Amino acid sequence: MNTLKLKNLRKTYGSHVAVEGIELDMAEGELVALLGPSGCGKTTTLRMVAGFIEPTSGEIHIAGKDITAQAPYARGTGMVFQSYALFPHMTVAQNVGFGLEMRKVGRSEREDRVRETLRLVRLEHLQDRLPRQLSGGQQQRVALARALAVNPSVFLLDEPMSNLDAKLRADVREEIRTLQQRLGFTTLLVTHDQEEALSMADRLVVMEAGRVHQIGTAEDLYERPANAFVADFLGRCNIVKGMVEADGVRTPSGALLSANTGQEPGGHERLFVLRPQHIQLRPASAGTAPARVASIQYLGSQTEYRLDFQGTSLLAIHPTPGIDDSRRGIRVGDVVAASWDSAAVRLMAVA
Predict the structure, then answer these.
(1) Are the C-beta atoms of residues 19 and 44 closer than 8 Å to each other?
(2) What is the rounded distance in angstroms from the CA atom of residue 90 to the CA atom of residue 95?
(3) Stated pTM of the model
(4) 280 pLDDT exceeds 80?
(5) Is 97 a residue whose pLDDT tops 90?
């Protein structure tokens, strides 16, 4: 059974369309991430599912039941807010038990569920502390426990790691994903962080201006983006406009970028789309198309090479070379041979 189903969900504010006709089916135990730039409609979508925003049209179904018009507390959802929204005057245990108290759960059962939920997030030893006595990561886990305590059918996460530093974000997202997979709860995550979405989600929904561009696994969207927006938003990408020729795309600078043009008609303008990881670098030799290294950016585990390929700028990204790697000696200003497998190239329509 589909645990969460959105049917042509739409939200407008006057003439402004915030969300336009979203269709989404989520299976039980699946984690789906709504991903997109600020203002794309992802948080509005999440809040419609939670019941905090009324849809203009469309339906929301949970476990086969239409809950579009139901109050938030009656929907069977649990939500973790971006700001955590913890009550500062309540202890950890009281915060976690608040939703249960509002649902009239008896004291004995409430205490048992609070204790069990705090154990799941490894905070049982801090149950008597106030939020101000906790670190950011601990506060985030209290918010997580509060949402889990009500045993939701659908778990809603609104930018849950945005207030944490980079190192803690990585640790917490791994904790959340591990817990979600172990308990098998269905989760809808809103984020603008690509790495967060790629590392946590079973499927991603890429949105822009209220519309869905593509839904699929991380590999689907990264390797087979539906359009230039998805390619450009999800990870780094070379996107170059040019004219189709028999062996590739001719750029305005005159460079011929090799590509499998297939049935593409010659003389038509297209976008040449290629991930930087697919560009190989090796010493230049007679008969190869030279590229000059315009800049090198060392990023620890990987290195970025900005190339001037016959007047066209291309980005290549590789793991930082080891001691015996031939790329270790590459310097800014060097001439190298840049090549790629034509099968890795996607040709897209110009918007």
Answers:
(1) yes
(2) 6
(3) 0.84
(4) yes
(5) no
